[in-house]
Amino acid sequence: MASRDVDMDAYGGLGPTIMCVIWTELSVALIFMAMRLYVGMCIKKPLGWDFVWAATAMIFGIAGQGFLVGAVANGMGNHVELLDPHQIDRAVLFDTISISILLIGYCPGKIAIIAFLLRIQGPTHVKKARFLYFLAASNVLLNFTQAIIIWFQCDPPAKLWNSNLPGKCSTADHVNSDLGYLQGSWSSATDLILATYSPVVFRRLQLPVKQKIGIMCLLGAGILACVCGCIRTVQIHRVRNVTDRTGNLAYLSLWAWTEFWILVIAGSLPLLRPLFARMISRLALVVPRRNSTQDVSPKDSKSSRIPMASPNKVSEEPSDLPQQFARSESQEHKSEIFVTKHITVEREVRGLQQQSQEEPWLGKFDDFASPSRPISRTIGTMV
Q1: Across the strands, what pairs with 374?
Q2: 251-304: per-residue pLDDT in tens?
Q3: Nearest-angstrom CA–CA distance, 33 and 58
Q4: What is the pTM of this model?
């Protein structure tokens, strides 16, 4: 009975907040990835390397978050005085595994954005491409080094999560913290560079100003990941406070995972623009359809009616018509009712005709119909 009470008390403190935040972020990231997959398979084929890297980041994220859930279930986010030693050891161990997987998962997440930018700017910008390659390589080097050093900051390594073991965590612990500041600072700087890189690509393109701003806003959503990365870097000082390890490590884990999921979501936003464009174009057709149906009144249809001849009726000379039809023609015309079966509105979708001719890469974003092909819709049936 006592052990059951301890297990119930293990889940508390910042733990429920961590669970709510990370599962919400994961759900949003999965929805955006599903939409991205739909765009790549049904709208803009084929899927590029940027999707492969993003999917790899999702796999690392789901795996690492599973260990974070185990850490929270064992007391991560709660204070050590409310936990037993075994719970503290399991919580720190699971959280360390989670952070290690997370550091590796940052790499494909950033490479996915870099691969997308390389695909957009084309192979002609060699110097800019080398700069993007440098960003990818430097982040991979720092993140993998940090993920490895975490496990060797104590001698023996098991003392990292089991403080009762004999040994020390002094020198390597400071090295890990210093490297954490370097990795966090450079990771945040990379997020900021990638988020503000779009003006370099789009400044010379002949596009409307509103469209440039829209694309830049989609690409600039990574600034939020930069902000979370800065907050996460500031929280590294909590790692050195060993008096309340489960309570202090929770803040670092919360902001680290928030940065990761925002990075995945922000990297998917620009790829969803063809889907957003298709939804807006269809909505633009539905609204005029409803308005046109309401604006057409019976008087308008009656005044504009035109007698339609039957397609099987052969035209005859007036002299050959029967006299009865000639005499009663005026009377029948008064009681005749004409039916308007279809009102068709043709709308020409111009899209980005001029820009698509001047900038072929624009097809990577937009999915409009052919500029010269009208789109017809039957908007009502009236009698």
Answers
A1: 348
A2: 889 999 999 999 999 888 877 777 777 777 777 666 655 555 555 444 444 444
A3: 9
A4: 0.69
